[in-house]
Amino acid sequence: MNVIIDLCIVPLGVGVSVSKYVVECHNIINAAGLKSSLHAYGTNIEGEWNLVFDTVKKCHERIHEMGAPRITTTIKLGTRIDREQTMDDKIKSVKEKLSSQ
Amino acid sequence: MNVIIDLCIVPLGVGVSVSKYVVECHNIINAAGLKSSLHAYGTNIEGEWNLVFDTVKKCHERIHEMGAPRITTTIKLGTRIDREQTMDDKIKSVKEKLSSQ
Amino acid sequence: MNVIIDLCIVPLGVGVSVSKYVVECHNIINAAGLKSSLHAYGTNIEGEWNLVFDTVKKCHERIHEMGAPRITTTIKLGTRIDREQTMDDKIKSVKEKLSSQ
Amino acid sequence: MNVIIDLCIVPLGVGVSVSKYVVECHNIINAAGLKSSLHAYGTNIEGEWNLVFDTVKKCHERIHEMGAPRITTTIKLGTRIDREQTMDDKIKSVKEKLSSQ
After folding, report:
1. I need a surface site. Which of A77, C15, D39, D75 has the fewest CB within 10 A?
2. CA of C85: how far to CAs of A83, C2, C75, C78, D6, in Å?
3. Domain ranges, residue B85
4. Where is the Thiamine-binding protein domain (chains A, B, C, D) (predicted)?
């Protein structure tokens, strides 16, 4: 089963700057061979369910190793069985409607 | 690694009533032996990471089998390595501070 | 317009313990006269849209005053116009189906 | 108080395709003069707190007018008082660290 997720990992107890943890997660996601796209409040990832969630787990494990005692994460995730749809398809679908207004 | 999650699964394309899907997920969570607690906007679950996320996957698979072509889910999830903390501990910590005001 | 929300406010830069901030928000929500219910990963609140979001804003302002330089919050929110539904109605709807299985 | 949010509005009871509702929200956000950026699982918006949440409310009202009986929305929102930070700043901070690896 394919899944598209929006991942926002927030380490606690390590101050207010979280970008170095985002970078580390970015590397883990890339190493897993997953397609991803960074935005200002998270990272979109698409791929096979198990690989995606194993990767999220690796991000948590790595951020704890980096010294964060606590992590709180928000994930939105979508699956569909009526048809295949990529992250690009989702954006394209909106942009086409916007340009034809 | 233990995790506490807040799970909110929303089937799309099946009308506005979602309680029968929540019930089905409740049964799947119970069958997995996971501790859970229902609230008005989701279900809290605690347990070992892999078991928890395998269970979330089973919920998605089951809801698709029930006829929902598309599902969008929001999950909050927390891990910590400084100490063990259950869902009950989290609530107790707030309630103690509330009662001692 | 009435709204039911699930509110999870996370102060950053103030260590790993967040319960004292949750307590403060609880007091602000109560002072606003809003109905709320605490769970292990947030607080459910129901009420008129403007009052609810003014209250969320007051929580952010207060937590900054308490010393948190940065806050990240996750909110789920639901509105419906087909019928009135309270937080209690939502839980009751699931519990009735659970007990009649 | 400035806020950066990630907005994901999901109308229920209107089938599986939600792009026309996303387009309508996009127009409302633009008409409010707010800076926004679309991604595959939501829209990032930055601006003054009251204007941002008035706009979210207008999106809900409009989607109900378009025929959706029920809406469930997920919002992540961040405020900080230690320094000003835009959506672009957040992405730039990560991209600089990525490119210097």
Report:
1. C15
2. 33, 9, 19, 10, 26
3. 2-99
4. 6-95
